[in-house]
Amino acid sequence: MQLLYNIAAIIIVVLIIPMFMIRAVRERGFVERIKQSLGIFPDHVLEPVAKKGCIWVHAASVGEIVATSPLIKEFRKEFPKSPILVSVVTTSGYEMANRIIKDADAIIYFPLDLPWLASHVFRRIGPRVFLPVETELWPNFLKTARRCQVPVMMVNGRISDKSVKRYKYMRGLLRDMIGTVKRFAMQSPIDAEYIMRLGAPPELVTVTGNTKFDQTYTDVSAEEKAQILREMNLEDNEGIFLAGSTHRGEEEFVLQAFKAVRKSHPKARLVIAPRELLRTMEVTHICKSAGFTVSLRTELQKEDQHGEPTDIVILDTIGELGKVYSIGDVVYVGGSLITHGGHSRSAMPASPWRMPGGWRQRCHACLMSRRSATAWRRRPWPSFPRTRGLPGSPP
Q1: How would you write the chain as a 3-class SS string?
Q2: Which CATH architecture has domain 222-370?
Q3: pTM of the predicted model, to two decimals?
């Protein structure tokens, strides 16, 4: 099974080389990402952690980085002399890590899980422990960790329904991966049940809750909220409708709801944060075609003085959405109006918003209820009409 996995991995890498070349031209910083994904690291990047018994935490993208941030703070307190390495897969995750994780000694792109590459990079870094976040289990890296006798602990572990079904076809490979992990710290009892169903010994499984609820980077004071409104030219409003992490096909629904709002609240404003920044121009075109005026967050940051406020502001930055959620009177978290599946609302568990829409995480309702957060309507609905057109909007 390991041999078949390696052959498939090599074929996939060869097939996506043309896409890498296109993205290298289109995306700032993608060339550096490719280099590091191929194990080519500048000496100064790894110097603070290589061969120094570092704590290696691997998080795939933005969501996992958010979950990682409180862990890194605790590691720094408990192990002040141990270097900390954070690795990510995506460009957005890399930028987010550099933005909110200040206690890491090095932040890198995770190398491709190819047999020789995983072994080379792992031995070059020589960590004291390897901590994959959520579902980041990579066969070749785990195999190398086992050979190097480096303990592996799965943190903030999450196993989806689809993963359980998919892993059934990888029994041989899965047995080796599960056997390498020394401790499974899972988000919920359901995740714990799933990982045990996949072969994890019950005595090695514990439920720690979702560490995303422990993050503090989204905490916003009244002064910071006022500053965000001022910087985004949204001070003059009759309510702010915020649509975060939207996917292609969702903006049209959001705009329909916003049009209904504007009939009775002409100064209501809309903030849209596309899930993919590469869609910024596409979303701008959609909004303008619907008859709205639009400004970009990055453009507003460059202006010393703002002109007339626009109907819509598009958040085209990375790492700000968690704080920007604080200005929304009505918040929609994207992914549930299409077949993609909704995103997590865990970035705002104590927030006072009513949030239409659905989310994919099975356990969030249970976790949120334990934090007295299922009443998503803690302050009066701001004389703001129903978000008609959005499934799940209030009756």
Answers
A1: CHHHHHHHHHHHHHHCHHHHHHHHHHCCCHHHHHHHHCCCCCHHHHCCCCCCCCEEEECCCHHHHHHHHHHHHHHHHHCCCCCEEEEECCHHHHHHHHHHCCCCCEEEECCCCCHHHHHHHHHHHCCCEEEEECCCCCHHHHHHHHHCCCCEEEEEECCCHHHHHHHHHHHHHHHHHHHHEEEEEECCHHHHHHHHHCCCCHHHEEECCCHHHHCCCCCCCHHHHHHHHHHCCCCCCCCEEEEEEECCCCHHHHHHHHHHHHHHCCCCEEEEEECCHHHHHHHHHHHHHCCCCEEEHHHHHHCCCCCCCCCEEECCCCCCHHHHHHHCCEEEECCCCCCCCCCCCCCCCCCCCECCCCCCCCCHHHHHHHCCCCCCCCCCCCCCCCCCCCCCCCC
A2: 3-Layer(aba) Sandwich (3.40)
A3: 0.75
